[in-house]
Amino acid sequence: MKIALIDSGIGLLAAAAAVHRLRPDADLVLSSDPDGMPWGPRTTDDIVAHALACARAAAAHRPDALIVACNTASVHALAAIRAELEPGLPVVGTVPAIKPAALGGGPVAIWATPATTGSPYQRGLIRDFAAGVEVTEVPCPGLAEAVERADAAAIDAAVTAAAALTPPDVRAVVLGCTHYELVDERIRAAVRSRLLPSAPPVAFYGSATAVATQALRRVGAVPAPGAEPSGGLTVLLSGREESLEPAFLAYPEGRSLVAVGAARP
Asked: What PANTHER family does this protein map onto (predicted)?
């Protein structure tokens, strides 16, 4: 079994690591776009073009499923990717976990990029899945870019700024950008440091495990975390077959993939 993932950068690592945990025998194809990132500030047409290029590069390796492991690409390019590649190649998008976060009744905070915060897309998800729940949209300028560079000081500064905008009585925090899941522990610590003394524990919601599980479901596979870790790894950087970039290895999710197999060539 082979699962491909696309993103502008290293945000795909969280979902890739989740696939590896669930099916260590699966081959992985990681297709990112260092030459074209970031995608967020681009026009919709540009985002579609870049996301399609990444998807086509990944599809050339004949995967069984393709994960669009990027919130921005899922918003703007998922329909175009599906129109071109399905039904021959199942395509799974990434949606912020607002629905499960809202089930606890709130307050809920949604951490997202400035472009996504307040967007019609995110407001629509809030309307559809969190009606009647107190929701605070928290913009996180510079956080995804800092994660991409593995810049610890910039990550801490961006996380601290976003935590300051998060209500001190928050019950759930949605990580609305795949990059944020790579610094999940830093976000948890920053939010918890600002909670009211009487506040109950905060639940944190990412999308990586749900997306990985859905990809397996689409290809008729089931989780088998005890399977022999026999999968291989292919890394595509703006279509070029390369090795893992140093920033990938700055995170546990990236380092866990080194064991998947030697990145080609």
From this structure: GLUTAMATE RACEMASE
d(CA 193, CA 197): 10
175 burial via Cβ count (<10 Å: 0-12, 13-18, 19+): buried
Residue 102 sits at φ, ψ, to 5 deg, of -80, -15
Q: Which of 67, 70, 112, 216 is catalytic?
A: 70
Q: Over the stretch 26-68, which tens digit does the pLDDT of each residue have?
A: 999 999 998 888 887 788 899 999 999 999 999 999 999 999 9
Question: What is the Cα 30 distance to its own chain's centre?
Answer: 13
For 186, left (φ over 0), alpha (ψ -120 to 50), or beta? alpha
Separation CA 118–CA 122 (nearest Å): 6
Bridge-based pairing state of the strands 233-237 and 240-242: antiparallel
- Annotated catalytic residue within 10, 177, 191, 236: 177
Question: 70 an active-site residue?
Answer: yes
Q: What is the pLDDT of residue 264?
A: 42
Nearest to 105 by CA among 134, 126, 129: 134
Residue 196 carries which side chain, given as an amino acid letter?
Answer: L
Domains and CATH numbers, the chain: 2-94+208-258 (3.40.50.1860), 98-205 (3.40.50.1860)
Q: What do you get for the CA distance between the two ends of the chain, in Å?
A: 20
pLDDT value at 265 more than 60 = no
